[in-house]
Structure formats: structure tokens, C-alpha cells
Amino acid sequence: MSPPTVLRELVLASGSPRRSELLLREGYAFTVDVPRTEEPLLGHFTPRELVLRHARHKAAAVAPRHRDAVVLAADTLVVLAGQILGKPANLREAASMLQSLSGREHVVCTGVWICCRALHVSRGFVARTFVRFKTLSAADIRAYLRDVHTLDKAGAYAAQEEGTRIIKEVRGDFDNVVGLPVGEVRKYLDPLLCAQ
Fold first, then answer.
1. Host domain of residue 181
2. Distance from CA of residue 95 to its chain's centroid?
3. Which residues of 69-94 are buried (b: 16+ CB within 10 A; e: fewer)?
4. Domain membership flag for residue 188
5. Is 137 domain-assigned?
6. How confident is the model at residue 152 (pLDDT cuts 50, 70, 90)?
7. From residue 110, how far is each of 29, 79, 104, 137 by CA, in Å?
8. How far apart are CA 159 and CA 22, in angstroms?
């Protein structure tokens, strides 16, 4: 069976190289339009609500520039015992986050928003993956921070970069931990890309 004919352009509303790599791995052709939006950590929203609001806000910022295209946006947070771990401000904060995650299970939450103004479609979902860290010594943490750039990553780690050094177990979609649950995204995305 031949692949479906793609009729619409795909625009990724994200500057994340990890999300681009995941989409390229799945064979998608797309352009990148990075939204200029703030991502405040508002305390009165749950992590699920927050990632979905952030993703929708990113998509809405980009969609007016691409009326006929399908716009894909996402936002990922690491949540430990109800506490949101964002991107560390510096290496000291990154080390503190990794120490907090050591030997414990946390949740990686990704909100995804997909819209197309021409088709009057705007919808989203949240994917969750459970990750348990190995017990890390201070030396383990220093070595990881030396070898992996973590300051642009929620929770101060990258599952796809030396992840086996720090991760003991992943329950759920590994791609979601990297930054985009592409298997679930495909279910929403493909029908829109092929729609008249």
C-alpha cells in the first residue's frame, strides 16, 4: 500500500533539536517556526494543565503565520512528588535537581497541541511517562554534568544522552521523555496533513 499523499505543510512550533530529530526519524518533512512566548510556572494549574496550556499558547503564537499549514507545538515538564522541575538556571541547580531525582521515580509530562486554521481544527493531549533514576553519588552527578549539557533540559537530564548512566527504568513512551510522544502524535497529525 502506498503512503498517503501529504497535502499540507507541517510547521513545528518549537526550537527543540530533540523534537526535530524525532520528527525526522519518523520521516516527516517540516519547517520550524519558533514561538516567542513566555512559559510561566503558574502555581494554580496542575502539571497536566500547565503543559497543555503552554503547548496551546505556542501553537497559537505561530498559527497565524501559517494559515494553511498544520502547526505542532509541545511542552515538557518533569514532575517529582508533585513538584515541577523546570530547566536549571546553572550547574549548581542542575546538580541539586539530579540529587533530588536520585533513586526515585518521577513523571515526564508532555502537552501536545496540533492546529490548522484552514481546517478549523485545534486539539491537544497530554502524554505521561514514568522514569526511575538509579541511586547517584555526588561523583556520578559531577561526571554526568561534565559530559552532558543539561541547562536547556527540564529536570537537568537528557534521556537520549548517556541516559543509561542515570536511568534505571522507563515505564511508558521513551520518546515522550526525549520531548515528543511521536507515536501518539502521528494519530492526530497524519489525517490533518492529508486532509483536503
1. 10-193
2. 21
3. bbbbbbbbbbbbeeebbebbeeeebb
4. yes
5. yes
6. confident
7. 22, 11, 20, 29
8. 13
Rounded to whole angstroms, how far apart are CA atoms 47 and 53?
10
Q: Is residue 4 part of a domain?
A: no
Strands 31-32 and 10-12 come out as parallel
CATH number, domain containing residue 96: 3.90.950.10
Considering 33, 75, 173, 175, which one is annotated as catalytic?
Answer: 75
21-48 pLDDT, tens digit per residue, is 999 999 999 999 999 876 665 568 889 9
The answer to whether residue 75 is catalytic is yes
- Check pLDDT > 70 for residue 73: yes
- The model's pTM: 0.89
Is residue 44 in a domain? yes
Instruction: Check whether 4 has a pLDDT greater than 80.
Output: no
Residues 8 and 26: their CA atoms lie apart, in Å, by 17
What domain count does the chain have? 1
Q: Tell me the pLDDT tens digit for each residue of 107-125.
A: 999 999 999 999 999 999 9
Query: Which stretches of the chain are DSSP H helices?
Result: 17-25, 47-62, 91-101, 138-147, 174-178, 182-193
Cβ atoms of 11 and 189 within 8 Å: the answer is: no
Q: What is the DSSP letter of 2?
A: P
